[in-house]
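Shipment paperwork, digital attachment
Item: protein structure file
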Amino acid sequence: MKLKIGKHILNISKEDKILFKKNITKLDIINYYNNISSLMLKYIKNRPLMMLRYPNGIDGKSFVQKNASVYFPNWIKTVKVPLKNDSVKKYTNYVICNNKETLIYLANQAVLEYHIWLSNINRLNYPDKIVFDLDPGTEDFEPIKICALMLKEMLESFNLKPFLMTTGSKGLHIVVPIKQSENLDKLLDFEKVKNFADQCAQKIINLKPELFTQYIRKDKRGKRLFIDTLRNQYGATSIAPYSTRARFNCPIATPLYWHEIHEKGMYSGKYNIKNIAKRLGNMEDPWLNFTSSARILKLNN
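Attachment content:
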């Protein structure tokens, strides 16, 4: 099967291959990304991309890919990113997904999850967003809701504008766009941004230690929700808005309006490849003003 996308003709292989149960095929995934591309690309443009590939579907073997394959066509943009603190100057050659052709090509390579850096290629050392990953210890959504609303209030007290997203996995992401200073002496690197995120998380934990924790080890968390700030580091990634997830029913990482957190039946996998089109057909993108909402993070040094 051939598919003309932009200036390129893509050879789609094994389009009938079942990648998810309930007969979700590779062609279904390709059609989804074809339809969502204009919405999704603005969130992943110019960001190093980590890919999770499932060539034999979600029940088969999978692998994480950071380096672009040598057989990827030369029209796919890549950028060599230095490893952190590497004295011998080793690099990872990341894919930069800036257009529909690249997005569809990768979907044809059975990329089912698109994970992106928190900084872009113009300022790799300086993130332009903060991510809090709320990872629940039980199936109960209430602690996620409580934590998200507490974080929202705290972040707004710093004159920041937090955004909400289902991960399509277990919990929610709170994502905060930040504006870096034009003054080079005031740029905030990953370490400073992560320290801020850690402090916010700890304040929330101090208020409700019976519900929340920052313990990384699951055996120390018990049933408490883990406020994960580990994504706020050089080289770390978070799931891209509107990415599919390699889980039952093909859930979608879906941006939400804040009022939706109160809806009955809300959970991280609520939106999937079967119902996302209906949702988006009935509303504007909840993150429409994400980039323009970026504000300078003022730290007390």
